[in-house]
Design goal:
globular, TIM Barrel, six-stranded parallel sheet
Amino acid sequence: MRSLAGLANEIRRGNSHRGAVPLGIHLEGPFLSHLKRGVHTDSLLEAPSISLFDRFWEAAEGKIRLMTIAPELSGATELIAHATKLGVRCSLGHSDARVCEAEAGYTAGARSATHTFNAMRAIDHREPGLAAYVLDKRPLFAEIICDGIHVDPMMVRLYFKAKNEDRIILVTDGISATGMPDGVYMLGDMEVVVRDGRCTSDGVLAGSVLTLDNGVQNLMKFTGASLKTAVAAASRNPSILMGIEDGWGTLEVGHPANITVLSPSAGVIETFLSGHSALTVDSVSA
């Protein structure tokens, strides 16, 4: 509750420090499957509960925009419907759901999938499971961590072929070690080892050190996607999912001038925040 209140306060401050603007909170837990929890602490997972969610909502001052939830859990569809009515986008993930359970989550209001392939029931030819459902369900948005570690490039290509281009979303799942050298870092109270781009805690993947520009570059490299398509997956598409496309994710007169200027190979040339260049001395000299 303290964390949610603190995040809500940070969002309220906006870009007073001329930095990136947090647009909302993603609850990646605690309504997750014990079988597909990743590095989430098992004892901290909770059964879906409208009353508990409402406490989160109050602490966050209504600034929860996205919630990952395992649809197969008892009470999940009711919570998805409740959160959806409040404007929260519910995302299927950290889940061992079968197709019928995934469909129940979608019917209740879920509109995206968290970290496609990761912490999901794997594809099987007789019980396709959540991962296959995500690929097959055309209207469903689908995130992917495109670092070549969380998902093999071949599976990224399969994902790209299966999903409509306006439904793919690039995310980083980046932790605080992003941009830092190899070493040992903390993720909450967990010790995470970062080596050669891989973040692990007790041998289990624990987030990434991927940056979004590298995610765009990797999608182009792995799939042959155009720069336009890859950039949309990192900007316009998530804006549409979140229902904020009127102000974010497009270059339009009257929109906030938060712009990343890329080269044809998706290298970052310059960044503008609210119309002001965010170039540093180091980046200018580089």
